[in-house]
Amino acid sequence: MTTATTAASPVDAGRIDAHLAAFAALTEPGGPGCTRLAYSPLERDAHAVFAAHMAGLGLTVSTDHAGNTVAELPPDQAASGPGGLPAVGTGSHLDTVPQGGGFDGIVGVVAAMEVAEIMVRQAVPHRRPWRFVAFAAEEGARFGQACNGSRMAAGLTRAADLAGLTDRDGVTMAAAMAAVGLRPDLVDGSRWRPDDWFAFVELHIEQGEVLRSQGLPLGVVDVISGSTRLRVRVEGRATHSGGTPMHLRRDALVTASECVLLGDRLARDPAHRGVRVTVGRLGVEPGSITTVPGAVEFTVDVRDVDSVRQRDTARALARDFESLARARGVELVTEVMADTSPVILPGWVAAESRAACTELGLPYRVLPSGASHDVQQIGHVIAAGLLFVPSRDGLSHVPDEFTPTDQITPGVHALLETLRRLDGTTR
Ligand code: GLV
Ligand code: MN
Ligand code: MN
Questions:
Q1: pLDDT digits over 352-371, tens only?
Q2: CB 123: neighbour CB atoms within 10 A?
Q3: Which ligand is in closest contact with the Cα of 204?
Q4: Which atom of ligand 1 is least distant from the CA of 372?
Q5: Ligand 1 pocket mutation, candidates 223, 228, 397, criterion most atoms within 8 A of CB
Q6: Any residues with CB less than 8 A from the CB of 241 and at least 6 apart, and which?
Q7: C-alpha torsion angle, residues 130, 380, 310, 306 (rounded to 10)
C-alpha cells in the first residue's frame, strides 16, 4: 500500500474509531456480530446518533417519511451567488443483516460524519450545499427488497407498495415503519428533486477480494450488479418418517434440495458465467426429526451486472424448478420478491474520483460491485458515484466483516477530495 507519495490527510482516525464503536454498540443482544435490522428501533437509534453528531456540528438535520436522515451544510454565501447551486452529497446506510458486521454501510455514514466535521472545523470553502445522508433500510435481508429508503427517495418504491412487502413474521414494511414512528402513507412526498442535486458519492467496503488481493487502497466503481429475488414454496406431504416407505413419499425437502443444487450448477455453467445464485434462507415444515418434510420455503438471490443474463437465469431457474417438482409429484410455486436492474454509474463522476485518487497519490482500480448500494437507486434520478475500500478476506454480511481504520481513512480522504472537485465543477 502507498506511503511516501500520499498527501497529508485531514482525516482523524480516532474520530472514525469512536463513531464505528458507537454504532457497533447498537445491536440485538447475544450476537454474534451486529444485528440492526431495517426499520427496527435499533436502526432508528443509530440514525439518532448520526443526527445528533451532525446537529452538534451546526448542520440542519431532518428525517423524511421513509426514515432517511439528511444533514445539510449550507454553501458559503459569498461563493454560491444568487439562486443557489444544486447540492453535492454523500452517505450510506446504518442497518445490518442478521448477525452481520459493523462496516457494511456504516463506513459510508461514518465517512460522511468525518467529512462534515472536516468541512466545519477547517471552514473548507465550498459553493454548493453539502448534504450528508443516512439512508434507511438498505438491507434486503428483512423484507426481500433492498435499498428501501433510497428507492423511496428515487420514487422507485411508492407508498402503495409498502403493504406488499413482508418480513418472515408477516409484518409489512408499512407496519414496521409506522411502529418506529415513520409515516409510510406519506413517503411519496419524500422524493428527491433531480434539479436540487448535482452529484452524490458513496463510500463503502468492497465486500469482495479484489482490492485486498491486489494490495490497492481504493476502488472506483463503474457498474453495480442487479438482483432478482425469488421466493419458492414447495408443498409435498408430511407423513411418518418410519411408517412411510420411500416410494410413497412426497418429500418437499428432497425437491428443494434438488433446486438448490440446480441453481449452483446453472450459475457455474459457462453459458451463465458471471451470474451468482444463492439460496440463503430455507425453512422446513414441520421441522421434526421424525416427520417427512411436508413443505419447504426458500429464497433465491440472482445477481449479475448483465441485466439480460440476470433475468434469463431467474426465468430458467423458475422453469427448471417446476420440472423437478413435477417429476417428484410435489407442488411448487415461485414468486418474484424483488427485481432490481444493474446500474452503470456516470463516467464523469467516476472521473472526479479517479482524479482525486491520483492527486492524493492513492492507487486505485476501476471495478464492478457485486453487492447492491443506495447509489444504485438514487442513480436513477441524480448523478452518482461509488468508492470502495478493502474488506479483510473479502468477507461481508458476517460477524468477521472488517476493514482496519488505516484502510478507511484513505477512502474518506478520497471521498472528501472527490466532493470538493464536484463542488467546483460546473456541467
Ligand atoms: C446489500 O448489502 C446487498 O445485499 O447487496
Ligand atoms: Mn451496504
Ligand atoms: Mn449489506
A1: 999 999 999 999 999 999 99
A2: 9
A3: 2
A4: 5
A5: 397
A6: 289, 290, 291, 292
A7: -80
Domain 226-340 has CATH 3.30.70.360: yes
Q: Which residues contact 405 (CB under 8 A, 6 or more apart)?
A: 13, 16, 17, 20
pLDDT of residue 2: 42
- CA dist 85 and 196 (Å) reads 8
DSSP letters for 160-224? GGGGG-B-TTS-BHHHHHHHTT--GGGGGGGPPPGGGEEEEEEEEE--SSHHHHHT-SEEEEEEE
Q: Which three cell numbers stand for residue 367?
A: 471495478
List, run by run, the mean pLDDT of 10-residue segments along the chain (427 residues): 66 98 97 97 98 98 98 86 87 98 98 98 96 98 96 98 96 98 97 97 98 97 98 98 98 98 95 92 98 98 96 97 98 96 97 98 98 97 98 97 98 98 87
Amino acid at 344: I
Fold agreement (13-225+342-423, 226-340): no
- Look at domain 13-225+342-423 and name its CATH class: alpha beta
Per the listing, cell 472536516 goes with 118
Cβ atoms 375, 386 nearer than 8 A = yes
Q: Where are the alpha helices (DSSP H) in 67-129?
A: 77-80, 106-121
Task: Indicate the domain borders of the chain.
Answer: 13-225+342-423, 226-340
Q: Is 226 in the pocket of ligand 1 (CB under 6 A)?
A: no
Closest ligand 1 atom number to CA of residue 97: 2
Amino acid at 158: R
